[in-house]
Amino acid sequence: MLTIADRTFTSRLFGGTGKFASAQVMKDALEASGSEMVTVALRRVDLQNPEDDIMSMLNREKYLFLPNTSGARDADEAVRLARLARASGGGNWLKLEVTPDPRTLLPDPVETLQAAERLVKEDFIVLPYINADPILALRLQDVGVAAVMPLGSPIGTNQGILTLAQVEIIIEQARVPVVVDAGLGAPSHAAQAMELGADAVLVNTAIAVAADPVAMARAFALGVEAGRMAYKAGLGRRLSRAEPSSPEIGLEFLHS
Amino acid sequence: MFEIPSFQDLQKYFVDCGPHEVNRTLESEHPGITGLAALLSPAAAEQLPALAARSAEISSLRFGNIIQIYAPLYLSNYCVNRCAYCGFSADNKISRRVLTLAEAEKEALILHERDIQHILLVSGEAPARLGVDYLVELVRRLRDKFASITIEIQPLETEEYRRLFAAGITGVAVYQETYDRTTYDEVHLSGGKRDFIYRLQVPAKAAAAGMREVGIGALLGLADWRLEGLALGLHLAWLRRHYWQTALTVSFPRLCYAEGGFKARVDISEHNLSQLIFALRIFDHDVGLLLSTREDARYRNGMIGLGPTRYSAGSSTVPGGYADPELEGEQFSVGDRRTVKQVCLDIRGQGFDPVRKDWDAVFQKPEDGCRMTDDGYG
């Protein structure tokens, strides 16, 4: 079981709601993924409209609703969006995204840290989307975030974990759950993140734009499960050279 | 300052564009300006299906299986410029009108009832009749009802754009019409718009003011479309380098019939237009591409998913035309007269989601007297 803040999750695959061909496809894919937490862009939904296409499809009993601040250029905008989400019944959980470059959508570390500090003080449960920067991850943990969400590669690129070495350090040092987010393009990428010891992954584009999003959601769920199982089973370490499986170590000289 | 080479110089990019260059570009992640020339070249026209496939693949990954929906709201057809191709040209004998704020609000409410959440405010260029004060007041009345409000009006200075941004306007579209200096001088007969260099700097001024989105475009039918495409690519790349926080869009208006009877100087076929759209998508994966109701329903339905990311719907191009569909005095003849609902149904029918809302007024820091306080809802 994975615990973030005061909630436990059976599934370690978190979902998204963007880029789907229809709200129905989104709903079916989320169900197939087994996800228990889904993120929703505040810019995309009208929280106060019960007929909103996305919100009306999401069963809030079944999924923990994780609003995100996608589109925010700085800390002020992110904080304002977060407050609006809470005031409109969006709850306390927040995926903090501060992405001033609309082209790469890479997160701004300075503004993200500032916003996180302010939002934690206002009792939000903050899950910041960050570049895979171990020091930033530590600084965010120091201000009280509930998890960190380092990117594998830029959003929507399906390139997998290009930030491998950094993600490994983040995981090794983490005092809160690490959720690898963005860029996971195939179930094998998700499995790889879980094998490294990530606590969960968040996948949106690769599922939403697959030819069969429902089947792809299921494939990702299996990838996550396999990766987690392998991590718990204890993977052999990687070596840069061959090593005999029955080594003759040659320590006969030691006194007994 | 952005400068554009002459069309004669731009032509040199096409000298070595054969099938080999086209294939190499199609396999490249970052085609660059020489790759864009290859994609716009006659050799690439022979490979249009391959261009379409690559453009569709990039669009799907970057934007998803969606089309954003918007509608224009024409505020005024007064114009001080004489432009040979435009229905609003100062010497055309059309019925002229600038909507009162109340009339403009009424038009906007009709769009709101049709579930349009992104509106583009459009006017001819007549600052004395419709200026910044008018827009600030109109936006104050509308901002709570729409996810985003953008403008396509006369060029303004950075300070004026800054004021409009603070009021709640998020984006500016300003089209060069043609990047060919010679043609530009020939079709812009009088008025401030005659100044080619001045107009070329306007997108940068809007970006410098903090606008979230800046749209550029060329009116297709005035000059060689391949060279216009290359110029658009250069302009995009320059804006990206200098204003990295601004999202960019490109429009592809083909000359339609308009009052004045201007005949297109060059023919742009649907094949040509499609090649231009695919080429720019492959060149710039992140640019928003607009396809308006100038094009007919058949073409727009066919292009869903292949590159364009934003469609206007249910458009009227005459001030007051939503309240009174019989009005005359439109900027150009609309090619797709389907309702918003029908456009959305057709998009769904193609397996894409017609997205009505993809922004929120709350991103803008509200001015005094607006609905928000700094602590949330006021």
Give a structural overview.
The complex is a heterodimer of chains A (256) and B (378). With 256 residues, chain A is an alpha/beta fold. Chain A has one domain: TIM Barrel, CATH 3.20.20. Helices cover 36% and strands 15% of the residues of chain A. In chain A, strands 5-4-3-10-9 form a 5-stranded parallel beta sheet. A 3-stranded parallel beta sheet of chain A has the order 6-7-8, covered by helices on one side. In chain A, strands 1-2 form a two-stranded antiparallel ribbon. In chain A, α6 links the parallel β9 and β10 (200-203). In chain A, α6 runs parallel beside α8. Chain A is globular. Chain A starts with a strand and ends in a 23-residue tail after the last helix. The model of chain A has no long low-confidence stretch (mean pLDDT 91). Chain B is an alpha/beta fold. Chain B has a single domain, classed as Aldolase class I (TIM Barrel, Alpha-Beta Barrel), CATH 3.20.20.70. Chain B has helices at 7-11, 19-26, 32-40, 42-45, 48-63, 101-113, 132-142, 158-167, 181-187, 196-200, 202-208, 225-242, 270-283, 297-303, 340-349, and strands at 66-76, 82-83, 118-123, 148-152, 171-173, 188-190, 213-217, 247-251, 288-291, 310-312, 353-355, 372-373, 376-377. An 8-stranded parallel barrel of chain B has the order 1-3-4-5-7-8-9-10, surrounded by 4 helices. A two-stranded antiparallel ribbon of chain B has the order 2-6. In chain B, strands 12-13 form a two-stranded antiparallel ribbon. In chain B, β8 (247-251), α13 (270-283) and β9 (288-291) form a beta-alpha-beta unit. The relative contact order of chain B is 0.17. The chains are: A alpha/beta (256), B alpha/beta (378). Chain A binds chain B through residues 18-23, 42-46, 71-73, 76-77, 80-81, 83-84, 86-87, 100-103, 156-158, 205, 208-209, and chain B through 60-66, 147, 212, 240, 244-247, 286, 348, 351-353, 355, 357-360, 362-363, 365, 372, 374-377.
